[in-house]
Amino acid sequence: MNKQHFNSIDYRIEEMRLNLNKAGFRPLDVMFTGVTGAGKSTSLNALFHKKIAKVGYGCDPMTMTLDHYKLHGELRFWDTPGLGDGIESDKKHSKKLIELLHKTYPMQGNTYGFIDMVVIVIEGSNRDMGSTYQLINDVILANIEPERVVIAINKADVAKKGRGWDDTKGEPTSSLHEFLEEQACSIQSRIKSACGIEVKRPIFYSADKGFNLDVFMDAIINAMPEVRRNLMLHIA
Ligand SMILES: Nc1nc2c(ncn2[C@@H]2O[C@H](COP(=O)(O)OP(=O)(O)O)[C@@H](O)[C@H]2O)c(=O)[nH]1
Ligand SMILES: [Mg+2]
């Protein structure tokens, strides 16, 4: 049902162009983040329709370099090291993420944030949601406006251990769909009660099965900022 709509990297590219013309910057720099194993690399490969990122690989612990991937002239994703591999590496990785969120460039007497928006890939059925909420609340939402954040729940196919997944249609049955909707709502309200911040309703998809990839792209495109991130306003 959804797969057919999202069949090229040019998906809604004209709209993106128009919006970026208005905003006056290009490309849109999107930080791609999530706990290790949530499926960031698989998602990037699905969005790019080819294998660009190594699955099940994690980041290089020595250099912790950030890989970036340009979908086209309008959109650039920054893959980042995941949390959830232990306290020490979480500390290092959180610092790295916060540094990236505070990276700036000067322009006409102003200081702008390099990262325009953030996509957080999460796994709703992860046994340990602690790292996920730490990432969302303490690292991301503490350092960028919620309007610029998209939360995407991956692995819809195995949300209920595979129950309710219709493999012939490549989509969830209505009962799994309902479950996923509820999960999205409950994550949204859990964030609200933890840090008082209202985020957009998370979307759900499966990078592995190619389900709701259009919904994923729609969420990114619909949340595209129309202005640069002016970081000077916050320092004053
Ligand atoms: N069932 C299922 N497995 C997935 C999905 N997306 C990723 N995976 C698996 O989850 C594991 C971690 O994926 P990876 O992309 O390396 O995660 P990363 O650490 O966030 O980059 C791999 O074994 C993937 O094949 C999905 O939508 N459904
Ligand atoms: Mg990865």
Strand-helix topology:
Elements: H1 13-23, E1 28-34, H2 40-48, E2 67-72, E3 75-79, H3 87-102, E4 104-107, E5 110-113, E6 117-123, H4 130-140, E7 149-154, E8 165-166, E9 171-172, H5 174-195, E10 203-204, H6 213-222, H7 232-235
Parallel strand pairs: 1-3, 1-6, 6-7, 7-10
Antiparallel strand pairs: 2-3, 4-5, 8-9
Magnesium ion (MG) is lined by residues 40-41, 53, 57-58.
Walk me through what this model shows.
- 35% of the residues lie in helices and 19% in strands.
- It is globular, with a radius of gyration of 17 Å.
- It has a single domain, classed as Rossmann fold.
- With 236 residues, it is of the alpha/beta class.
- It has a 6-stranded mixed beta sheet with strand order 2-3-1-6-7-10, sandwiched between helices. It has a two-stranded antiparallel ribbon with strand order 4-5.
- The structure holds guanosine-5'-diphosphate and magnesium ion.
